[in-house]
Design a protein that fits this description.
single chain, 5-stranded parallel β-sheet, 6-stranded mixed β-sheet, binds 6-O-phosphono-beta-D-fructofuranose, alpha/beta
């Protein structure tokens, strides 16, 4: 698989020239005035997601050059290597197989090793979904507590909330991630030993937060007189041996080729499957698979993850924008920004390329956001009139799942108005009342928020992160940057007990002393 870092292609220099010549001064209002077809040209229907990119600072010539950049970088070959099961996670020598988790059982895979993995995926999925339905039907279990962090928490938590309209089991779902004992203590106050199922979700089964919470939950269970661990604890992990050693015999496995932040589609999705049932969980996988097929087969020019990922590169490396904000106008999507933060920033927050060479350009933007309309009354002031340009990504859902008449049109009016205001601005007043406009946004529209459309939306985001990471030449599938803090925390935990401050910097030593005083 030949990959060429984006800055080493001829198209990169052409894009730099295009940015200087017209890109930096592109005015969206003029662009619309000059091209009656702009909306059609820069919008498209992808599986279950409609996207309007027309309010972005891009023109046809720039998009064509970005496509050239993708071709010269070997994006399609890199994508095919991922789908083909090659070990593209080169620093850990692992394949990147989350797409296999949503590949149908009867898919014809030419690679026999991959076909064997697919068979394993489906036997685990069948077992996990049978278990989900069993829990679903078990009236004695009223509460399910997921103990996990990062990818073992954010995905299921986001998706359970997003699909609350589809929750049929009537179980109360709780998520405990933080090592801060207040979180677990608050949940344990609400649940009863005989009616609670604990899911210990950890790819590695070594993460300190999760293991600390799991041990405390088990101690609580025993102290409350609980005995049937097999019924009240299950583990979702690649490390079944460690789960068994912990005392958990009900386990659902997955594999090292599933990255933590890409694991929602694996056994880590069990809380979602319990909440919405096995059939809806299969629809969720099918929606993601539809987006996978689109990413694999649509021509680059009409390939939505490719178009979004290239726009990300254009904004980050040519315009120099350092962040992107996501505003889902749907209260059930209120954890989407947190989920996407890990996806984007843990994947692409890298300062060296895949061969370890320092990069001369910026990579992951800061991703942040809040659901609308809440954000409008908090930080949108800065988006409209601040000194920085922040590309926005709006997500709207056409169909409401309630029938309270004034609300949904009002919500949709607001999301349209915000995107419009950012672009159009207001120049008939000076000073404090002036809105410069020309502020870019992407608009993603779902007909309905369903398991399938959520699956497609998340897969779209995964693949757009793949696209920018691929062009940047980085390994989007490792996360060495989280290791140093883990090691130092162990050291400081011992020092908090002993008081030993030798060799510490002055600030850490000073704070340690205050905490011990
Ligand atoms: O924060 C680092 C990380 O490894 C994430 O990538 C991962 O999602 C999280 O920790 C949890 O890991 P695990 O599922 O192994 O407990």
């Amino acid at each position: 698989m030949a990959r060429t870092r984006c800055d080493r292609t001829p198209a990169w220099a052409q894009l730099q020239a295009a940015y200087q010549a017209q890109g930096k001064d592109l005015d969206l209002r003029q662009a619309f005035a000059q091209d009656a077809q702009r909306f059609e040209r820069f919008s498209q229907q992808a599986p279950l997601v409609f996207a309007d990119l027309s309010k972005n600072r891009i023109d046809a010539a720039t998009e064509a050059l970005l496509m050239e950049l993708a071709r010269q970088s070997g994006l399609a070959e890199h994508r095919d290597a991922m789908f083909g099961g090659e070990a593209i996670n080169n620093t850990e020598q692992r394949a990147v197989g989350h797409v296999l988790l949503r590949t149908p059982k009867d898919a014809k895979l030419s690679n026999p090793a991959l076909a064997a993995e697919l068979a394993k995926v489906h036997s685990t999925l069948d077992a996990m979904l049978a278990y989900a339905d069993q829990v679903h039907g078990d009236a004695a279990i009223t509460d399910v507590v997921n103990i996990g962090i990062g990818g073992s928490d954010l995905g299921p938590q986001m998706a359970v909330l997003a699909l609350d309209a589809f929750a049929k089991s009537g179980k109360r779902l709780h998520f405990v991630s933080n090592v801060d004992g207040h979180e677990l203590a608050a949940v344990l106050q609400k649940v009863h030993v005989g009616s609670t199922l604990f899911l210990v979700a950890s790819k590695t089964f070594t993460t300190i937060e999760t293991m600390t919470n799991a041990h405390s939950a088990k101690a609580w269970f025993t102290a409350q007189g609980g005995t049937d661990t097999a019924r009240h604890f299950a583990a979702l992990t690649t490390n079944v041996a460690a789960a068994n050693a912990f005392g958990i015999t009900t386990t659902f496995g997955f594999w090292d080729w599933v990255g933590g932040r890409y694991s929602l589609w694996s056994a880590i999705g069990l809380p979602l499957a319990i909440a919405i049932g096995s059939q809806a969980f299969r629809e969720f996988l099918a929606g993601a698979h539809a987006m996978d097929e689109h990413f694999q087969s649509a021509p680059l020019e009409q390939n939505l993850p490719v178009r979004l990922g290239l726009l990300d590169v254009w904004y980050r490396n040519f315009h120099g924008f350092t962040s992107r904000s996501i505003a889902p106008y749907h209260s059930s999507l209120r954890r989407l920004a947190a989920y996407l933060q890990q996806l984007e920033m843990e994947s692409n927050g890298k300062r060296v390329d895949a061969s370890g060479e320092a990069l001369p350009f910026g990579t992951s933007p800061v991703l942040w956001g809040e659901s609308g309309t809440n954000g409008q009354h908090a930080y949108f002031q800065m988006l409209h009139q601040g000194t920085d340009v922040i590309p926005m990504e709006f997500v709207a859902v056409k169909k409401p799942r309630h029938d309270m008449t004034p609300h949904h049109p009002l919500l949709l009016a607001n999301v349209l108005a915000q995107a419009q205001a950012l672009m159009v601005g207001k120049s008939d007043a000076g000073g404090h009342k002036h809105f410069p406009g020309n502020r870019p946004s992407t608009f993603l529209l779902l007909d309905d928020l369903t398991p399938a459309s959520l699956g497609a939306l998340i897969a779209l985001q995964e693949h757009r992160v793949f696209v920018s990471g691929s062009l940047w030449g980085i390994n989007s599938f490792d996360q060495w940057g989280v290791e140093l803090g883990k090691v130092l925390a162990k050291d400081i935990e011992a020092r908090l007990a002993s008081g030993d401050a030798s060799g510490l910097d002055g600030s850490t030593a000073g704070l340690l002393a205050r905490l011990r005083a």
